[in-house]
Amino acid sequence: MPRRFIVFADSFDENNGGVIALHRLCDLLNRGGQQARLWPARKPLYDEAHRGEYALAAWRWYRRAWRRPYRTCPVFHTPLATRADLEGAIVVYPEIVHGNPLRARHVVRWLLHKPGFHKGRVEYGPDDRYFFYQKAFDDPALNPDGGDNLLKTVWVRDDVYKTVNTGARRGSAYILRKGKGRTLVHDLKDSVLVDKLPHSQLAQVFNRVQTCISYDAYTMYSLYAALCGCVSIVVPEPGVTKDQWYPDPKDRYGLAYGFDDIAHAIETQPLLLPHLKAQESRSNASVQAFVEKCERYFPA
Fold it and tell me: Of 7, 75, 237, 299, whose CB count within 10 A is highest?
């Protein structure tokens, strides 16, 4: 019998990798025969014991929703949850969510980044179960039995990001995103910040410039730059070795970890798209394994 999953996620944003991963998870669960719904992250759940706080949060939610309605991706199957859907459901929270806002009995924490990276604290439940988007985000202290609890959803945008310029290139692009606040170490002359560009314009920039420098060590946009023919360079995080950054060498295809690693990026760039497409196809297997483990963790 299908299990019901509630994925706690912000409004769809094609420029937010974590949000894409959450919406894609809901989509793949439904495609795999489960019953999955999205719960808008800012939508409060009625709380009889704290009616005043709920009323204020609800007013803020509906005011925001009126101005900017909650968005889903038109090519994903991602219906929205109601309060009735919560009964007996397995709720999936990204690692940035503290506590248990939906007061669920069955909770999965999906580590889409290192716990505590964004907000400097970790507030999870003693019975939560943990899955990680990549091994670099796993935390053995939180997840002592989760050595193989990989849950990775992939949506390769090779319809947008592809090499169309095989001629001359000039200048560089750079990415801050989660690396905002880090010291800039590259030459800013003829360098364009691309954080807020839509995909179509970003692909044009990546096809125009020679190099892309990212201060966010884990953004998908570094890979998109490589797909467009850029030399894609990731500025190393202090104290993080290349093997610690991405333990699997295949996950480093098309990328240079630092300016001394450019030869590796150029040499492995042709291997990147086949690797990403293989990851995309394996997403279904990853999600199916996730469902099977949840059935063991949370018997119906």
Answer: 7
The model's pTM:
0.75
Write out the chain's pLDDT in tens, 300 residues: 788 999 999 999 988 889 999 999 999 999 999 999 999 998 877 676 667 777 777 777 778 778 889 999 999 999 999 999 999 999 999 999 999 999 999 999 999 988 877 666 778 988 999 999 988 888 888 877 656 898 999 888 898 999 999 999 999 999 999 999 999 999 999 999 999 898 999 999 999 999 999 999 999 999 999 999 999 999 999 999 999 999 999 999 999 999 999 999 999 999 999 999 998 888 778 899 999 999 999 987
Tell me the H-state helices in 32-136. 51-67
Helical (H) or strand (E) element with 30:
helix 17-31
290 Cβ contact list (under 8 Å, min separation 6): 131, 151
Q: Where are the domains of the chain?
A: 4-153, 172-276
**Dihedral sign for Cα atoms in the order 262, 265, 270, 273:** negative
How far does CA 283 lie from the centroid of its chain?
13
Nearest CA to 76 among 140, 11, 161, 150?
A: 11
Within its chain, how far is the Cα of 15 from the centroid? 10
